[in-house]
Amino acid sequence: MHKAPAFLLILLLGFSVVLMAQDSSPDAETDWDNYSSELYVRGDQTFSISLGVAFPTLFLNNGQFLSHNIDPPVGGSGFLVYNYYFGPRLFVGGEAGGFVLPTLANNTIYIVMLGGRVGTQFVYGRFEFPLSVSLGMSWQNYLNLGYYGFYVRANAAAYFRVFNEWSFGLKAGWSWLPQWTNDSSKNVDGNFFDITISARYHF
Predict the structure, then answer these.
(1) Which long-range contacts link 160-163 to residues 24+ away (Cβ below 8 Å)?
(2) How far is CA 115 from CA 97, 140, 199, in A?
(3) How many whole angstroms from its chain centre is CA 113?
(4) Which end of the chain is more exposed for a tag (fewer CB within 10 A), N or C?
(5) pTM (2 decimals)?
(6) What are the Cα distances from residue 64, in Å, to 21, 149, 203?
(7) Are 100 and 126 in contact (CB under 8 A)?
(8) Strands (E), the chain
(9) Which of 108, 49, 105, 48 is nearest to 75 (CA)?
(10) Is residue 19 over pLDDT 70?
């Protein structure tokens, strides 16, 4: 997991290069006098990429707290997200991503998520605040053990619209990943929190 700071540094440098390239372009638009909450209309779309860190939080078995055995208690998080807007306040879309988490025994837990999402968005000047809920399927793998189930995820983000086509910001997510079996004594409700740096393309 020592590579996580390097990934974040590379991501930040990449954002800086994009910003400088856009700023030097003669076609870059700087007139935001008409920017308002009604900027989004039916048919507008966005695609975003997010990279950051994930933390295990609550692990429960029939209401009892469990130790998650994830150490250090931080891993990597990454998501690709597509949104289609029906208007300034409603969007639907899909997402693909997941977590990579280390364990006490120096092994790795892999969690892949693929699902649909619905959300709303609030705009203030150049700042945009999308909120969404996702539901989908997850694939979880640890050593030779695997589990296939569903997940529920809530997201909140804050973006700054730098150019017409690009906005950058931070996104936080809370994921509920249950592992339910025929033996209820082995059921686990896992909860993860992640925070990521995000770049969003508007088209």
Answers:
(1) 160/126, 160/127, 160/128, 161/35, 161/126, 161/127, 161/128, 162/19, 162/22, 162/126, 163/22, 163/28, 163/29
(2) 9, 15, 20
(3) 11
(4) C
(5) 0.76
(6) 53, 21, 47
(7) no
(8) 45-61, 64-65, 75-87, 90-102, 108-124, 127-142, 145-161, 166-179, 188-202
(9) 108
(10) no
